[in-house]
Amino acid sequence: MATSSRKSGEANDYSIEEKIIALYELQKIDSKIDEINKIKGELPLEVQDLEDEIAGLETRIANIASEIDGQAAAIKQHKNEIEQAKGLIAKYEAQQDNVRNNREFDSLSKEIEYQKLEIELCEKRIRESTADTKVKKKMIEDAQAVVADRKIDLAAKKQELESIDQETAKEMESLQAQSDAAATKIDARLLAAYHRIRNNVRNGLAVVTVKRDACGGCYNRIPPQRQLDIRSNKKIIVCEYCGRILVSDLLDQQEKAEE
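The structure assignment produced for this chain is given below.
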């Protein structure tokens, strides 16, 4: 922003009264910007939330697909192990025909039994992986359906937001230029305080007039002597209750008279 590039010495060329008036003008301009942003409502956040949700779902789909690929590789490996076990069984059975004693026959029988157990175990793991793959594929289908719905919602909300942006673009550009111009009359510390107060109050009002002897922000009563100090425009005065910067209602009246 242009305001941040101004040298503090340039802002200090203005009197306290000019700075107070600039603060009041800046608040009015920023309030108009706030009103335009209110038209957008929660749309920017909703767009961001949908984009984050879609990204999360797509990451989940990719992770599940990777798991399915891993299971497919495992199933292939188990099938290879089954074929190897069958080959060993055939080999051991052939060897049993040529054994010299019962000891060798029993040893080969144990090897055959072990390979049969390996086949059963591999078949069990294949069934489990196949069932799990089916579940995971259904999870992907469900997630993809949700992504498709969310993308439709996202496109609609983006279109609505872009429409508002297009309608308000020129006004926002003009207001931002006015805001930057007003900010050049305010020194960096005071401007930082203004933005800090705006961020800490719900309605964004950091500068308020005294109305009916009370703060225009929190409505607490302002003593008569303090009101005189505020009207003199000799120093920056903040509300002791809410911390907002107080300006004279005469500024508001003067503006209305000029209109």
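Interim note for the steering committee: The first strand starts at residue 207 and ends at 211. Confidence is low (pLDDT under 50) at residues 1-9.
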